[in-house]
Amino acid sequence: MKTRITQLLGIQYPIIQGGMAWVAEYHLASAVSLAGGLGIIGAGGAPADFVHEQIRRMKEAGDKPFGVNIMLMNPEAEAIARLVVTEGVKVVTTGAGNPAKYMSMWKEAGVKVIPVVASVAMAKMMERAGADAVVAEGTESGGHIGFATTMTLVPQVVDAVKIPVIAAGGIGDGRGLAAAMMLGAEAVQIGTRFVVAKESIVHENYKKKIIGAKDIDSEVTGMSHGHPVRQLRNSMTREYLKLEKAGASFEELEHLTLGALKKAVVEGDVVNGTLMAGQIAGLIQKEQTCREMIEEMMDQAKEAGKQFPLQ
Amino acid sequence: MLERIAEIIREQLNADGIAITMDTSFEKDLEADSLDLFELVMTLEDEYGVEIPSEELEQLTTVGAVVKYLQDKGVEE
């Protein structure tokens, strides 16, 4: 399937893996890239040295295109922004902020820049600042989220900008991919489904929670201080929401979640850890290789397209 | 200029009847988030025919900062 995104990024399939902190390391990212999608190293809150090592490993794994996701609130965001240039990384996606100040440096180095946006105005600003594409991410996504849904956000962003749009949030199979394309997207970003990929280093307990999740297991914390985070409900979210309702301060709440994602991903603490996952977790039923996931999604999307000729 | 900007802000944030002064903070007083600011800046650009690069958004935390920014760009009323 050819779109402006597959051409821009030099990938076979219009599927990009989300830059999930702790999860999106080189095992997963290289598997996605080798299967014809775009694998992404998620810098999250990690130091630049760690990201450097991850990039080195990616290059060893093969010569397929890959990207780095920079979480702009990372204290070392600037060092990582420079690192992608010196390492010749071809694609950068950005989250949690406005990447405008790095844009000219990246453009000069020929890096393709794809900011994650949660509104039409932000998409327009990013286009003007020189972005090559945007990821329009709906509130169905896991992790830090905005408020507009994928169904409403994607067509509005598609209408507002000329650069290609990648849909994210709530897409977990080929039907979702086909639907996103019908909304005008030219690729999709998949997060939660890749968390349970065979190549993903995420702890078995975490994978089991996603595979066992139902549609209603998704919870949003942090609404009160303006930094909502979507995850699967557990003891931690119950405690968090109780405190939040009681008017706890941002610092008090932060204390609960400090290091909690690592606790879940690395140590498998699914009781007190943060189980970031999108609303689509309920649809995800099994562990597969990235290649199986991608090929199944493409077959299913083609099938969905045939079922709806819409004449 | 304050009056017109206040009008635009009220309209953008659906904040009818809210008092807006030079000291009004977008975040603290109006509970506007970064997405609201993107929206507001786009509207101000259309209204005043100036371009506000997005890397300069961080400094625009109060209504007064926006007024001063526009004045520095040569906007008079």
Automatic annotation (TrEMBL), chain A:
Keywords: Flavoprotein, FMN, Oxidoreductase. InterPro entries: Aldolase_TIM, Enoyl_ACP_red-II_put, NMO. Gene3D superfamilies: Aldolase class I. Pfam families: NMO (PF03060). GO terms for molecular function: nitronate monooxygenase activity. NCBIfam families: enACPred_II (TIGR03151). Nitronate monooxygenase that uses molecular oxygen to catalyze the oxidative denitrification of alkyl nitronates. Acts on propionate 3-nitronate (P3N), the presumed physiological substrate. Probably functions in the detoxification of P3N, a metabolic poison produced by plants and fungi as a defense mechanism. This is Probable nitronate monooxygenase.
TrEMBL record, chain B:
It comes from the Bacteria. It is found in: Cytoplasm. Transmembrane segments: none annotated. The keyword DNA damage does not apply. GO terms for molecular function: acyl binding; acyl carrier activity. 4'-phosphopantetheine is transferred from CoA to a specific serine of apo-ACP by AcpS. This modification is essential for activity because fatty acids are bound in thioester linkage to the sulfhydryl of the prosthetic group. Its main location: cytoplasm. The modification O-(pantetheine 4'-phosphoryl)serine is found at S34. Carrier of the growing fatty acid chain in fatty acid biosynthesis. This is Acyl carrier protein. It comes from Parablautia muri.
